[in-house]
């Protein structure tokens, strides 16, 4: 198996190195390749997503990304910016399903803005359609009417094929978890949501052991704060998923803790949710856990190595419960450590178990 590591910029390089260290520890014969993306790629090649990186993706079984971006590239033309490299990468890899778990680590209950009793038992995953819907629908545009009024419009459309492929992914994930799936839409108002609901029900007949329910997006936004533990797999379209996944992530506390996966038919893309954090880059202050948990997601979703994925997650849980924290989780810490020491502690914990 070959993993392409794209460290990117800022703390991306630091957390990617830590995640690669953990990966090498748990699967020593995994081959690691390295490529450029983002601002550092632009500096070296003039492009934030060089052709050479695309060539390397073609021979990889999965891609692990750090983060991209930084103020020094903010004034570049849009297509040369680091973020254009990341969007280009997702489109190039045709990853249509974005998976964002939100799981509460008991030791971090204090880091959330919600009460401890609401957080207890939260372990959900949002499966968001990533390359369709209103962000991509055409026609789109801005125009000025003859009377001078400005008008802007976007198109929200989904085909049954797009819904089917994301629904299959979500049902497959539900089977690996507690077999409970909530499909979120706005079927009381939107035709695209009525089709979404119909197709999800059709696909559900092929997964009789999965308990399926439908929920309107406004209710879901409320339920995520009222009782997040009621959810297991949430399946939804691009726009709703974008908003709900950020809402759900706040349940868990720090941005530095959050992993993500984007998958399609080919190799998956795994990355922490956070950006390149220029304010703390190069200071050994970044929390590497989001990147390390992204490795666990890679092992689970790309290689079916549930046991090894679980081993990483358990080690993270144990280290946190000992009060060992990076600076972003300082409240309630018994010992503050840097990026590398946190990684060493997690690896040590895996060796001890
Ligand atoms: P950011 O996620 O980089 O940082 C937001 C805040 O969270 C900062 O205070 C930062 O120090 C803190 N933070 C983030 N990750 C952390 C970690 N692992 N440990 C400890 N603290 C952490 O978001 P931003 O400041 O809005 O953006 C900075 C740059 O990153 C921009 O160029 C932006 O475009 C880019 N960005 C990239 C991605 C990505 O690569 N996926 C995502 C978001 C933003």
Verbal overview:
This protein is 41% helix and 20% strand. The protein is an alpha/beta fold and 353 residues long. It folds into two domains: 1-96 and 259-353, 3-Layer(aba) Sandwich (Isopropylmalate Dehydrogenase), CATH 3.40.718; 113-252, 3-Layer(aba) Sandwich (Isopropylmalate Dehydrogenase), CATH 3.40.718. The strands form three sheets. A ten-stranded mixed beta sheet has the order 2-1-3-12-11-4-5-10-8-9, sandwiched between helices. Strands 6-7 form a two-stranded antiparallel sheet. It has a two-stranded parallel ribbon with strand order 13-14. The model has no long low-confidence stretch (mean pLDDT 95). Bound molecules: nicotinamide-adenine-dinucleotide. The site of nicotinamide-adenine-dinucleotide has 21 residues, from helix 4.
